[in-house]
Amino acid sequence: MPLQLPLELPWLKNTQLVDVEPALSPYLLEAQSLTAKLKETCDKFSVTVLANEFRSAPDALRTELSEQVWCREVTLNCNGKAAVFGQSWLNEDACTVGMDAIGETPLGELLFTDSNWQRGTLEFLRLSTVDYPALIELIAPTTGVAPERLFARRSWFKNGKAKILVCEVFISESFYD
């Protein structure tokens, strides 16, 4: 793909959120596993891996992670349709504990079942789809019609020196009805 999310921008705390669609709110604000939340509401849940590779770290992550990082991009799918675009950035220590080689296993399943991983604060951002045509391709590959703005959230997970930044963009039109 690769999709460059605006990691350098100031993201919002949940107390700063406004105009969140009612259908999206329970997912966006879910403090536990988004994977588990999606599985509760989907008849069929799946993960599609879009990228799983070493990359140069975005400038905003170089201090926290390093120059070279592992990037994993996926869609979390409900009933055959992409619901969430996920982008995770892993430092070398996270790779050495095997988090870079999980295939189609949802990352959330692993992070939330291992108590050594501690989640940081959720932060939020509203993205304009005009700035991210790759997201439109995921949302509506045939029609090109997508919501004008999409919500994203991110949080850090840490396990000793291992660090992962998980970013999730809510791309299903059902979140914005």
Automatic annotation (TrEMBL):
One of its GO terms (biological process) is ubiquinone biosynthetic process. InterPro entries: Chorismate--pyruvate_lyase (IPR007440), Chorismate_lyase_/UTRA_dom_sf (IPR028978). This is Chorismate lyase. SUPFAM superfamilies: Chorismate lyase-like. One of its GO terms (molecular function) is chorismate lyase activity. GO terms for cellular component: cytosol. Pfam families: Chor_lyase (PF04345). Keywords: Cytoplasm, Lyase, Ubiquinone biosynthesis.
